[in-house]
C-alpha cells in the first residue's frame, strides 16, 4: 500500500523501520504529545510492527511519511483508538526533525490519511486532541479543515502542571 501526494507518500511500517521508530518514540522531547512515560525497547517496537497488520483488533494504524524525491522517512502518521462501530478514529502525526517541519509534509499526510480512512474504513470522522499551548499543531489541524469542538480542562499532566487539551474534529463525509 502506498498513498501519494505532491511531496510525500505514506507507506506501511516495515521491520527495517524499527530502530528509527524506537528513536522517535524514545525522544523525551516528543513525550508530552505522545503521553509516553517510559522508553520502549527494540523488542517492544518489533512487537508493535508485527501487530500493525491487525488494525481492526488493535485500533491503531501507523504509516511512515516518506519524501517522494528521495524516499527519506521524515515522520509518521497514526490512526489510534479506532472505533469501527461508530466510524471514527483519533489521528496523530510526527515530523521528527526540525529541518523537515513547515514544508507541507504534515498537512499532506493528514489529508492522505483522512481520505484513506473515509474511503477504505468508512470512517465518518476523525479527531485530534492537541495541547492548547501547541500552536503549530493547532494551526496545522485547522488548515486541514478540522474544527475545534471543545476544550478538555486540565486534561493532561505535564511535569507538575496540568494542561488543557483542544478537541478537534473533521467530518469526512464533507471531504
Automatic annotation (TrEMBL):
Gene3D superfamilies: 3.40.630.30
One Pfam family in the UniProt entry: Acetyltransf_3
Domain of life of the native organism: Bacteria
Domain N-acetyltransferase, first and last residues per copy: 8-174
Protein known as: GNAT family N-acetyltransferase
Organism, as annotated: Wandonia haliotis
Amino acid at each position: 500500500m502506498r498513498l501519494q501526494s505532491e511531496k510525500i507518500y505514506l507507506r506501511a511500517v516495515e521491520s527495517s523501520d524499527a530502530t528509527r521508530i524506537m528513536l522517535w518514540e524514545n525522544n523525551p522531547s516528543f513525550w508530552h504529545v505522545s503521553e509516553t512515560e517510559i522508553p520502549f525497547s527494540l523488542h517492544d517496537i518489533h512487537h508493535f510492527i508485527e501487530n500493525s497488520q491487525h488494525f481492526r483488533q488493535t485500533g491503531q494504524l501507523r504509516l511512515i511519511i516518506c519524501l517522494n524525491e528521495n524516499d527519506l522517512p521524515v515522520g509518521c502518521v497514526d490512526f489510534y483508538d479506532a472505533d469501527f462501530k461508530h466510524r471514527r478514529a483519533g489521528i496523530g502525526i510526527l515530523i521528527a526533525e526540525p529541518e523537515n517541519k513547515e514544508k507541507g509534509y504534515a498537512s499532506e499526510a493528514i489529508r492522505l490519511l483522512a481520505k484513506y480512512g473515509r474511503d477504505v474504513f468508512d470512517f465518518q470522522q476523525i479527531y485530534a486532541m492537541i495541547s492548547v499551548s501547541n500552536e503549530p499543531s493547532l494551526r496545522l489541524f485547522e488548515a486541514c479543515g478540522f474544527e475545534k469542538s471543545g476544550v478538555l480542562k486540565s486534561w493532561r499532566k505535564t511535569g507538575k502542571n496540568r494542561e488543557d487539551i483542544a478537541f478537534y474534529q473533521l467530518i469526512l463525509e464533507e471531504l
